[in-house]
Write a structure and sequence with these properties.
Radius of gyration: 17 Å
Number of helices: 8
Strand content: 25-35%
């Protein structure tokens, strides 16, 4: 199955092409404003490199949040447009789940964090289960980093742009109990995103396109300012 994945949830976005769970090509790029101007160039460049036509893509995978409100809207609108035009299925994947799947062999608590601005992070907890693989514990939320400390018991691995932003704080508070991966593992992997989308499609099929919505967790500034 030919799969195209797209991630625009943070300042570093990515596009991937997979055949089943085998990576054929990927590209990641950091932008200062939005991903709009680069997406199509990257998509068509990768398709040309592997010799695929866009019409050959059989499944789309996309990050649905949490993350940048604008970035999530851009990514979902792009993928929905491609899927609608070709009548192809789409699988949405949580950004936090995609980050956690960078660490399939980690024996410790995994806490991916995405910068939520306003001195907060979007976060969730994950652990590796011998039978189920990487599984989520509890619900994702937006929280100030210091409020996470009581829940970070024992050795914990922190990843994501939020973890990097508050690395000094967590090192000071947790000392040797906190672990940080190498820089590239703080990014959402197009390969991990594609593998998750493929596995979920095989297990559950794809939801109706109209049921695919972003996971914001926290209301946008526009929503907060809008009078009821």
């Amino acid at each position: 199955m030919k799969i195209l994945t797209l991630d625009t949830a943070t300042e570093t976005g990515g596009v991937g092409l997979l055949e089943g769970e085998e990576l054929k090509a990927q590209a990641q790029i950091r932008v200062s404003k939005t991903h709009t101007g680069q997406l199509w160039k990257i998509i068509y460049f990768l398709l040309e490199e592997v010799g695929w036509d866009l019409a050959e893509v059989e499944l789309f995978g996309v990050t649905i949040g949490p993350g940048s409100f604008t970035g999530l809207r851009i990514g979902l609108a792009t993928i929905k447009g491609l899927a609608l035009a070709g009548g192809k299925p789409v699988i949405g994947v949580s950004t936090l789940e995609a980050l956690a799947h960078n660490f399939p062999s980690c024996p410790y608590l995994i806490c991916p964090m995405i910068d939520a601005r306003k001195k907060e992070v979007f976060s969730a907890f994950f652990q590796n289960d011998p039978e189920k693989g990487v599984v989520q514990i509890g619900q994702p939320r937006h929280v100030k980093p210091e409020f996470l400390l009581p829940e970070l018991q024992g050795t914990v691995l922190l990843a994501g742009n939020g973890a990097r932003l508050y690395a000094d704080f967590f090192k000071k508070e947790l000392g040797d109990l906190v672990l940080f991966p190498t820089p590239h593992l703080h990014l959402i992997s197009p390969l991990a995103l594609g593998a998750l989308a493929y596995q979920r499609f095989l297990q559950q099929g794809a939801p109706p396109l109209e049921a695919l919505h972003p996971i914001y967790i926290r209301p946008s500034d526009a929503e907060l300012k809008c009078p009821v």
